[in-house]
Design brief:
Bound molecules: glutamine, zinc ion
Number of helices: 28
Largest sheet: 7 strands, parallel
Radius of gyration: 27 Å
Strand content: 5-15%
Shape: globular
Amino acid sequence: MTTKPAAAAARATVYGYPRQGRNRELKKAIEGYWKGRVTADALEATAAGLRGANWQQLAEAGVHEVPTGDFSYYDHVLDTTVMVGAIPERHRAAVGTDALDGYFAMARGTQDVAPLEMTKWFDTNYHYLVPELGPDTVFAADSSKQVTELKEALTLGLSARPVLVGPVTYLLLAKPAPGVAADFDPLTLLDRLLPVYAEVLADLRAAGAEWAQLDEPALVQDRTRAELDATERAYRYLGALTDRPKLLVASYFDRLGDALPVLAKAPVEGLAVDFTEAAAANLDALAAVGGLPGKRLVAGVVNGRNIWVNDLEKSLAVLGTLLGLADRVDVAASCSLLHVPLDATAERDIAPQIVRWLAFARQKTDEIVTLANGLARGTGAIAAELSANRAHLASRAGSPITVDPAVRARTAAVTEADARRSQPYAERTAAQRAHLGLPLLPTTTIGSFPQTTEVRTARSDLRAGRIDTAGYEERIRGEIREVISFQEKAGLDVLVHGEAERNDMVQYFAEQLTGYLATQHGWVQSYGTRYVRPPILAGDISRPAPMTVRWTTYAQSLTDRPVKGMLTGPVTMLAWSFVRDDQPLADTARQVALALRDEVNDLEAAGTSVIQVDEPALRETLPLRTADRPVYLGWATEAFRLTTGGVRPATQIHTHMCYAEFGDIVEAIDDLDADVISLEAARSHMQVARELAAHGYPREAGPGVYDIHSPRVPSAEEATALLRTGLQALPAERLWVNPDCGLKTRGWPETRASLENLVAAARTIRGEL
Ligand code: GLN
Ligand code: ZN
């Protein structure tokens, strides 16, 4: 394939870069500041050093225009809240006293003041702090962070483009402030917000910005006509400003749909569009509006969310098509590189030939630069890169890690019936009641028990070789003995082994499944200074040996009460890993489901009568566009049923989800065909029970009665009152008694006291029935 050189030389750019530094220096500096060990000046110096190093690295790699303002001490949406002066009332004093401490108070709360709510940034695993707005919100521009960072980059002699959260997305991500009517629509504040953006843009222009990027990812979700009209109005206003940089409106994570014609017509100088997963839809929509004559198009052709090497020829083909559609086409990743780790070459434990299949932020940067060069100078100029790329892709496609014929044969042979229990729910409950002999309002927990320092020390001792496997396992058995004996004494009905052996609910399984890769340095920001290292679903998945059976059976050997087996479900395994880009997600889910099915069946064969398959991620991976949701929910629920469909009617399948709002997926929850579901509810005062009832949910449910996010011990009376509330919505035959999830993050004293109170509450109510 050859590409003719573009008329104007294509430029390489990125929208954002990992913030933490090679050795997570930023995390250390910020946490040191919180503990009083690092001064504000030292923190600022570390931050400026990291920003400078990132820009230099980008520039040396050949990126023509570096992003500024994407850096953050905690979160870029919180930075935007500061930029527009929307500091919540309760934080104003702290912010006024010390801007930095006030900033962290908004992010994390203090002894006296609650933080802003945190929620997921679209369908990524990054979390942002939700702006709180109301009719009385007064915006005021504070461009200092944006201007400072722009000047830093310009001082280094770099061409730089400030990146801001756009005004429409900012308002669409906001929620009504406490005390404001729940139906308050933050978008009604648009006309008040725009002059603030105008001021910031003018300041950036004065500081030397030629371009500014306004990120509007909210426009890839379904938007009402009114929201699209607001978008149109916003960009007509900003476009009409005379004292401003050129504007690049960026979208990512999905297709723009009806928002594309709105932006295409807007008086802005450029659009940045995602041409990875949504490539076809965005290409068609762009062609349908006649392209972007006179505008700059930044084409996100390198996937900013996966960790796989790009198919350069495929990207070049997309870029070739785009050349006819805009005045100038530049090359970028589909979104900020914040969502991928920094550098694949740091992975020393992964075989070098496999490292070449991977592209983290640094490698993606190189791909962007290569593509821009290819676009500007013709493919001949990047012949060496193209041939190396072809070799990497071929090595991956042909590797036995990628394709395991046995797994393929097994997945291909799956039938409808495999994903169905042998008896419908209504019939198997009788078998389960008879088999388990549980009281009304049975008590249980969600799986983990406090992860003590001893457990964590044992794990690091094992890793460091200070103890051997036998020594480690003996310590885990000791934990299990303690957990079982406590639960028996406390009088819980369905016990758990406590998950002491698990470092993390996904990683633990990933390490034992063939086809998964683990990274040593693949950290990605989850929120604030919390970074996670998602494992990589690299190839066809299989389970060489049982993963949890011996721990569960050991626990069961210590007690006559049923011990619940505990697994992470297939959807959550996908959601909290990096997924494959070479087969549909549904196929990967099915492979993981079959591996987990073997575990479920082995648990049952070993005498486990209750098995919980956690799916906390079922809702968070819902596609951004509602039109895509039925297909997703179809394969996701099928994967769960495939995992659990092989057990006898008398074996009880539980599932668990960590949230109180699930009205939009309650049908899908029913489709899981689980016997019992536990949900987080303590904070919402059993709202979930009412919601389940309102949707006619026919199965057993355990809304949490102990808020595990707080060290506070709920009294037996309090738990009793919550159960009474629950009973108003669900009949006693279908109500379970359990805490919210996450006991592993709590200490033993409050766990003990709370669970004892919870059992007392269940007994009180049973006595009244
Ligand atoms: N079984 C897990 C636990 O109790 C569930 C964790 C979760 O809900 N995220 O820790
Ligand atoms: Zn949970």
